[in-house]
Amino acid sequence: MPLLNSLATPYADALLQIGEGSQETDQLTDQLAVEAKALLDAWHSSPELQEAMRSPVLQIEAKKKAMQALFGADISPTMLNLLKLLADRQRIGVLDAILERFLELYRELRGITLAHVTSATKLSDEQQAKLAEKVKAVAGTPTVDIDLTVDPNLIGGFVVRLGSQVIDASLLGQVRRLGLSLARAA
Q1: Nearest of 184, 159, 152 to residue 174 by alpha carbon
Q2: Which pLDDT does position 45 carry in this prediction?
Q3: CATH top-level class for 2-108?
Q4: pLDDT (tens digit per residue) in 67-81
Q5: Backbone angle region of 145, left / alpha / beta, with phi > 0 → left and psi within -120 to 50 → alpha
Q6: What whole-number distance in Å separates Cα of residue 93 and Cα of residue 58?
Q7: Taking the domains of the chain in order of start, what are their residue ranges?
Q8: Model pTM?
Q9: pLDDT tens, 55-69?
Q10: Residue 162 in contact with residue 135, Cβ under 8 Å?
Q11: HSE of 27 in the Cβ direction (CA atoms, 13 Å)?
Q12: Residue 113 — φ and ψ, nearest 5°?
């Protein structure tokens, strides 16, 4: 990933600087972060979109028009200009890496901790709020961004990843730990 990061970082940093350099610094930067998350969701949910944007057959102008038609009404002119710039420079295929790097830089700037949470079932809003409070206490930061995924293989409970720290409160994890304890005792 270092090569991809070296490609993504200048674009992500420029986008962050544009947000920070405007009169409404916090508002624009926060809006760009929301838009980046929405674009990433759309990008990851559509392999067809990824394939089309990475295709060398599709002309640059066609890619720009497609981005305008798909996202133009839903995103700021700043984000749309980034998409067009990436199309012009034939970098639209790494849009996901650029947006993810932007979100990393944004979180660093705002002091936000990213928690990857995998649960056995979809968590209710109340459960997510309680979990967010617990994660804030563990992370020691006032704000936490939760990336929530569902994995029924966990049987029950959840797993929280904060950087290299893992908190496994799943039934699958408990069964594994019990199995290891029994194996050591034998």
Answers
A1: 159
A2: 92
A3: mainly alpha
A4: 899 888 888 888 888
A5: beta
A6: 12
A7: 2-108, 112-185
A8: 0.76
A9: 889 899 999 998 899
A10: yes
A11: 4
A12: -95, 135
Distance between CA atoms of 81 and 77, rounded to whole angstroms?
A: 6
Q: Is 155 left (phi over 0), alpha (psi -120 to 50) or beta?
A: left
Distance, in Å, from the CA atom of 16 to the CA atom of 92, rounded to the nearest integer, reads 18
Q: How far is residue 89's CA from residue 79's CA, in Å, rounded to a whole number?
A: 15
Q: Is the pLDDT of residue 161 over 90?
A: yes
Give the whole-angstrom CA distance, residue 36 versus residue 166.
26
What single letter denotes the amino acid at residue 64?
K
User: Which residues, 6+ apart, have CB-to-CB distance to 64 below 8 Å?
Assistant: 83, 84, 87, 88
- Name which CATH class applies to 112-185: alpha beta
The 8 Å CB, 24+ separation contacts for 41-49 are 42/70, 42/71, 43/95, 43/96, 43/99, 44/96
Per-residue pLDDT tens for 76-126?
A: 888 888 889 999 998 988 888 998 898 888 888 888 889 999 998 999 999
